[in-house]
Each structure stands twice: as structure tokens, then as C-alpha cells.
Design goal:
The structure is a homotrimer. Chain A is mostly helical and about 210 residues long. Chain A has one domain. Helix content of chain A is about 75%, strand content about 0%. Chain A has nine helices and no strands. Chain A starts with a helix and ends in a 13-residue tail after the last helix. Chains in contact: A-B, A-C, B-C. The interface between A and B is medium-sized, with 32 and 34 residues.
């Protein structure tokens, strides 16, 4: 399970760094600005989780996370300048990053022996905060909160399912893969079929 | 005093969760989005205080705060959908939350033996940050900073008064209630009579 | 070196508090609002650094930083109300604050034995975060990310140079002064001559 957390974490960092650069590209940021957005997107969620849990912040202890974020960001920047990446392709890697980070975050919190409800919220925070930071830094409205499509809800459902499956006796690794699949399927289905939850409808959205 | 901090803290969490959902309702957020805003509004101020003081974050250790925030948020969401709550009623609970959190935050910092000026600022941070997060997540301008009405000023005055009364020999509990009353009266009077402090007036506000 | 870090840190706090009040003045904030922006600008970068490194937050332990920030903020407010300060003079102190904080942040991280790449990023964070907080609180777009002029890039170059010079055998104090000069010269030259880095140019900036 530790190996799973490690490698899935590195993959999530790479995927999120990629989405950060793609988003920064829409705003004509320069190289360093794009790299910093990539770093914030890739490392933000796990950083907030570690601060809340009073753990050592993962990328301060192990430089490989920061290296992967910078290298992926640089490659994406070069590829995007060469127009090798369609600039709007980013909902898919964003959904993958959400799924990976949510499951890693939940697992880390469980191993830290937080109560289960707190652990599920740590999963959501780990999954969502990187993208929120990216949106704030790029001066977008954080879509996670405003849009009707399942985002945080998909992450929360996956985190709760993973915890429930572990409680029901399934192995930690199998529960993690199941939770990951649930987040990914819910999020992609929500994008494709515009699934929404009930909303409060006083007034109009801005 | 510990009991006072605990119960006043829970009350402040509930009141702030309510204001978070009311604000989210104006932006047509869905259920999970509104609950997350409620959680951020209810737990944000105390979280920043605990991180700055290097304490265990209060709601990670004791799940009851998170449960109260989610339950209050859910009830408010249901009531708001049934149009049982006038959507603009939220300055009063917001002022109550400000007063409760300011006093709890100051007391926690004093017990942690910070210098008095730092303790008063911790009270302001605990009182104000939840509402600032709510405003940022709902994409409003954080009114605490821009508007002329006493807000952070009311919190700071109450925190300083509470510390001064304790130094003058008043019991901790009595000082806390006095400080709470000062914040609440100043804030409500400022709303009612549009009390303001001197401002810098170069240019025009946006 | 400890004395250098201490005094340069205090100077950086004062300079950043000044820029915070000048920026708040453009938004007609009142006295307390302007002081809080000053405090956030002056203490924000070092706070994030200390949280990430799991150090004691510098201004919570030593009240003098907070006192300097408040006193400088108050003086600036009075001077600005008397129109003794041209409201647009703030790029110079902002550049000085960037240089001072970057070098202090890098040095603190090195003494905390982080890997070198992490240490350089800590320098950038310490230098940049205060100004980002100021811009967010004043509801400006954080210029550090959007504008083509070297900002974070200047900080990063100075931090890396300082680390490299130390590795090459130069004394810590001399390396610090050299790094500081590099940040300042790059930033001021970028303002004067509009130096920029390559940018991603899909679509138009907002």
C-alpha cells in the first residue's frame, strides 16, 4: 500500500502539473509563472492535507515530487508552445488527477488515524485544492464550487466508498482502486451527461 | 473556561455554517458545494489559528465540530430550498459568529502563552478568516476589508478589551463574556448607524 | 549570519507593510483594514515558509515583527493621509521587499537542511506570497503571475545564485548579499526595460 501511495502520488503530481501549465497557457503567462502555477496545482492539495494533519509536508521531505512537477511543467510548456497539445484538452487529465489525489489523501489520513469522516474530507481536500489554487492563480472562478457538474461530490463519494469497502473487509489496495474508479467514472459521466445535484436557486448566478 | 471555549466554539461553528450556506445559495451552488462552503466558513478561522500556533487542528482531533458544521449546513440547505429563510438574513448570525469566534480564538492563544498582541490578532484571525474564505469561494469581494463598517475593528476591540480585563483581575469567564458583548454591540451598531473609521481616499473604490 | 537574517527580516517586514498600506489606500480601506493588509503583506510569505517547514511561525514567537509591521503601517497611513507619499511610488519598496525576503527565506530553509531545490522555492515563496496576499485582499489580480515582467523569476534566479555561490565556497553572508543584489537588479531592470520571458500565447489575456 505504501508503494501504491508513493507511485500514484507521483502520477497525480505529474498530471496536475500538466493541467496547471495548460490553464496558465490560456492566460499568456511566461515560463516561470506557468511553472509556479504547475507546482501549486501539483502540490497544493497534499500540502494542505499535511498541514492539517501536522505531518511533514510531503514534497519538502522528498525532493522527487518537486522535480517531477517542474519537469512535467517544463515539458508541457514546450509542447504547448509547439502547439502539440490542443489547449482545451484538460478535463480528462484533471479528472484523473482528482481521482488519484482523492484516494491518496484519504489513505494517508486513515494511516494517520483520523476519524473516518475527517479522513474522507482530507481526501476531498487533497483532490480539489490543487485545482482551486490553479483557478485562483489564473484568476478564474474556481469551477469546483460554482458549476453544477459533480466534482467535489465525485471525490467525496469515492473517498467514502473506499473507506466503507475497507471497513467491509476488502483489502486496502483493492478498496483504493475501487474508490479511484468511482471518482473517475462519476466525474467523466458528469462531464459527458451533465449530471447535477439539486441547487439553491435564489437569484441568478453572476 | 474550557467548557465555555468548547460550547461557544460549537455554537460559532453552527452559526458560521448557516451563513456559509445562505451565501452559497445566492450563487446557485449545489448541495455539496454549499456544504463545502459551510465547512470552510465554520472551520476556516480556527484552522488558521491552530496552524499558526502549531496546535493540533481542532476539528481533525474532535470529529464533533465537522459533524455540527455538516448537519447545520444540511438543515439550512433544506430550509433555504423550502424558502423558509429570507436569503438576505445573514448579517445578524454573521455578527454573532464573529463575536463568538473572536473570543474563543483569543482565549486559546492566551492559554497557549503567546504574547498579548499576538493573542489579540489570533482572535481577529479566528473571527474573520471563515467569512473571508466564504466570500472568496463565493467569488465576492471580502467585505471585511473593503467596507467602511466596523468588522475586523470590532473584533480587535473586543479581543483587546478581553485581554485588558483579564489583566485587570477580572475572571477569565467574565472577561470573555464582556469581550463578546463588545464585539457584538460594535458590529451591530456599525451596521445600524453606518459607523466608520477614517479611510485613505486616493482614487475611487472599484 | 543569524544577525543578518534577523535585521534583514525586520527591514523586509517594514518595507512590505509600507507597500501594503499604499495599495490599501487605493481602495479607500479604513485604518484597521489597511493595517491588516499591511500585516498580511509583511508577515504572509514568512508564515507560509514556516508552516511548510514545520518551524515555529516567526512572528508568533517574537512579537517584535508584528510590532514593526503595525508601527510602519500606522506611520504610512498617517503620511499617506497627509498626502506626503505619492500613491504610486511603490514598485521600488516592493522590489526591495522581494529581494530581502527571498534571501532570508532561502537562508532559513538551508539552515533547516531542506534539499537545495526546495530551499530555492522557499525563497521564492517567502519573497512573493506577501505581495500575492496583498493583491488578493485588495482584489487586484496578483501581478506576479500575470505580468510579463520578471518577478518570481528574479527571486528564483537570486535564490539559486545564492545557493550556488555558497556551494562554490563563498561565505554565507557574501552569498546572501550577492543574491539580494541579483534579485533587485533583475527586478528593477525588468521594470525599467520591460524585460520578459517567453510566454504561452493561446487566446488573449483577460
Amino acid at each position: 500500500m505504501d508503494a501504491l501511495v508513493y507511485w500514484v502520488g507521483l502520477a497525480a503530481v505529474a498530471v496536475n502539473a500538466l493541467t496547471g501549465v495548460l490553464d496558465a497557457g490560456r492566460k499568456q503567462m511566461d515560463l516561470i509563472g506557468a511553472l509556479l502555477v504547475a507546482v501549486a496545482t501539483a502540490l497544493g492539495g497534499g500540502t494542505v492535507r499535511d498541514l492539517l494533519l501536522d505531518r511533514n509536508v510531503f514534497w519538502v521531505v522528498d525532493q522527487s515530487y518537486l522535480t517531477v512537477a517542474l519537469a512535467t511543467g517544463l515539458l508541457t510548456f514546450v509542447a504547448a508552445r509547439a502547439r502539440a497539445i490542443p489547449p482545451r484538452l484538460f478535463l480528462i487529465p484533471d479528472a484523473i488527477g482528482l481521482a488519484l489525489f482523492t484516494i491518496v489523501g484519504t489513505q494517508v489520513a486513515l494511516q494517520w488515524h483520523t476519524p473516518w469522516l475527517v479522513a474522507s474530507l482530507m481526501g476531498v481536500i487533497t483532490g480539489v485544492v490543487g485545482g482551486v489554487l490553479r483557478d485562483i492563480l489564473c484568476n478564474d472562478v474556481p469551477l469546483v464550487f460554482l458549476k453544477g457538474e459533480l466534482y467535489a461530490s465525485a471525490a467525496w463519494a469515492g473517498a467514502l466508498a473506499m473507506i466503507g469497502l475497507q471497513q467491509a473487509g476488502l483489502s486496502a489496495v483493492a478498496s483504493a482502486w475501487a474508490g479511484m474508479a468511482i471518482v473517475l467514472v462519476l466525474r467523466l459521466a458528469a462531464i459527458r451527461y451533465r449530471l447535477t445535484l439539486p441547487a439553491l436557486g435564489h437569484g441568478k448566478p453572476d
